[in-house]
Amino acid sequence: MLIEWRNQIVGDKIKAVTWNNYVRHLKALYNFGISQGLLNINRNPFNQLFIRESKRRKKTYSTEQLHKIDHILNNNVVLPDFLKPSWFVLAIIMTLRCTGIRRGQLVKLKISDVDLSNRTIYISPEINKNHDYHIVPISDSLYIHIERLITELKIRKQTDNCQLFNLNLFSRCSRRRGQPMSQNQLTHIFRHIF
């Protein structure tokens, strides 16, 4: 009966990951009921009902797309206002490209997390998914972008405790002027870059 229900709703109405979430919770409830003697059954009906979840394709840019982005941002191509200033967007792209850090980590970085003299970026446990700290090297190709970013932040009198990547400080079209940059803003940049 449960298998019939699963076959009816998975695919058309819900995804496999949602089904597995339902099963996980119902299985826990039944296990509790069985162990406490609240249910008069010996075997949990939700055992062995998980289904294989398909893995989503990773969202990555091809080498050709990366070259196109570099060309657009380095050659004064006319850009929409939300992609200005282009040096800032290029700093974001190069940081993600050269360090492999996550978008959420990038948005939470502070100026104090960057050590230009040692060419490192410190990823604190508070912003790291696995709650470990990491020290990420700054490559030669990234260094010029981070150096310019920090110079521009100092011109705007930002303290070491301020957000490192904050489009709202530099963009003329931002509606969030004076506020920290959000991960949604970062996603918006990449959604509209092509």
Automatic annotation (TrEMBL):
Record flagged with keyword Transport: no
Biological process, per Gene Ontology: DNA integration; DNA recombination
Domain annotation Tyr recombinase: ranges: 56-194
Gene3D superfamilies, sorted: Intergrase catalytic core (1.10.443.10)
Keyword vocabulary terms for this entry: DNA recombination
Any one GO molecular function term: DNA binding
InterPro entries linked: DNA_brk_join_enz, Integrase-like_cat_sf, Integrase_catalytic
The UniProt record lists the keyword Acetylation: no
Name by which UniProt lists this protein: Site-specific tyrosine recombinase XerD
